[in-house]
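Hello K.,

You asked for the raw outputs rather than the summary table, so here they are, unedited. I folded two proteins back to back in the same session to keep the settings identical. This is the first:
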Amino acid sequence: MLLIRSVVFNTAFYANMILRMIVFAPYYFLASRKAAFSVPKGWASSSNWLMGKIVGATFEIEGLENIPEGGCIFTPKHQSVWDTFALMPHYPDPVYILKRELLWIPLFGWYLARQRMIPVNRGARGKVMVEVMKRTKEEMASGRQLIIYPEGTRRSPGAEPDYRYGIARIYRDAKVPVVPVVAHWGLFWGRRKLVKYPGHFKVRILPPIQPGMQPDAFYKHLIETLETASDQLLVETVAANPHLPLPATALKRLAELKAEQKREQTTV
């Protein structure tokens, strides 16, 4: 049954995306950029609805009050295709840093370009960061919210952290608040997994880290903040959804957390 529901969802998900891009194209490309963003936001909301109705996976958001007004940087942990769009309806005017190959996809890439998303050539080095920072400053100066995954790519729930230092440079130069976000989307919609799993989980938007810290201190603080919150939420999510088949990374991390807790109790 899980397989059937997953296949039905995948079919509905992509059909919904393609149909919306075609039907709303005249409005999307003729309206102002910001007004046109209602189209992808509507698609994101409908995709969340499909995930709930077909698969039975739903989420609630804690910490919406932590989203500051104006320009800021969101730094979600990245585990799934789902987390790339699920929170879009709650971002006032988001701009994503994404791999440039996505812009080459017919129609989909045109939609991204219309919203002035920031493409990155992952094969480049120093020069790419200069251009990314230039574009980032331009977009956030107009009050937009930058969405960047500080680990750079999708990671399995509970996997050892692998953060890129580029986020510290962006924080230093952008001079806006950074809002950490954690959730374990990958337990329900895994990376390169056909089967989706039902359940209910929390997305936690943490208090913003204000500008002004030294890059090294910020980098360390961001990692500690995200990883501590992610560990806590992993325990909560698994406890609330005992039916989930857990990846090896999650099982390993849960065992480590249990051992750490036992050591602390022994010490006390």
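The second followed immediately with the same parameters:
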Amino acid sequence: MKKQKRDLQERAYSRGYRAGVEHRSKDLAPPEGPLRDAWLAGWRSGRADHWDGYIGVSGIHRLAV
């Protein structure tokens, strides 16, 4: 099994980050729980990077760092 499928919180963070960079609503977060917290943390980071000009491909590359 791939690591990506095992680490659900990291996966939720990256999905939240992509949603934040794409200027999507935080209402798309999963229901209450630790995955929601990870998703919202990623969303906040994505929004901050979007405001700093990391949009499109450069924002996705920033996630890998």
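Residues 32 and 50 are 25 Å apart (CA to CA).

Happy to rerun anything if the numbers look odd on your end.

Regards,
P.
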